[in-house]
Design goal:
Oligomer: single chain
Number of helices: 8
Structural class: mainly alpha
Number of domains: 2
Largest sheet: none
Helix content: over 70%
Radius of gyration: 24 Å
Shape: globular
Strand content: under 5%
Length: 164
């Protein structure tokens, strides 16, 4: 059962990386988040909602709404911008550095001392991240599709007719 969940998480992670890169290539700026965030909220509600609806109260709803609006904006914006410049393989490897950051925060903030196996694992991931950073640039950055030009104005229509 656990292997199935791990496989599903890997598939979802790969889909996230590929779709985010596609959105970053197709839409200028971070406007793609305006569409993707509500879609993610609806999908998450459909998946988790039936299990938590009976436990909701107004305080939890307000806190959840605030967190849903504030927390994803900065990380997803940065990821969208990074995926415009990196290959998906390099991005995925760099994102795997998150456990190393979590280890350092756990050590400093919670005084959790990692064992030798955790340190070795983090060292391997950091080494892979360095290699991905050095070789993971995209061939040429893809610029978003240009907006269609505004219709040209014809001078004849802008001038008043003679004799009016």
């Amino acid at each position: 059962m656990a292997s199935g969940f791990a496989l599903a998480a890997a598939v979802c992670w790969a889909a996230y990386i590929l779709l985010t890169q596609r959105v970053g290539d197709e839409v200028s700026g971070i406007r793609g988040l305006a569409i993707s965030m509500p879609v993610a909220g609806v999908v998450a509600t459909l998946v988790a909602g039936p299990f938590v609806f009976d436990r909701l109260n107004w305080q939890i709803l307000l806190a959840g709404a605030g967190l849903a609006i504030l927390l994803p904006v900065i990380p997803f914006s940065l990821e969208l911008l990074a995926l415009r410049r990196l290959t998906t393989a390099a991005f995925g490897t760099l994102m795997s550095l998150e456990p190393a950051i979590a280890l350092v925060i756990g050590l400093l903030a919670l005084h959790q001392v990692p064992d030798l196996a955790a340190l070795a694992g983090i060292a391997f991931v950091v080494t892979a991240g360095i290699g991905a950073e050095r070789t993971g640039g995209r061939d040429k950055p893809v610029s978003p599709a240009p907006s269609p030009p505004a219709p040209a104005r014809t001078p004849a229509l802008d001038q008043p007719a003679e004799g009016c």
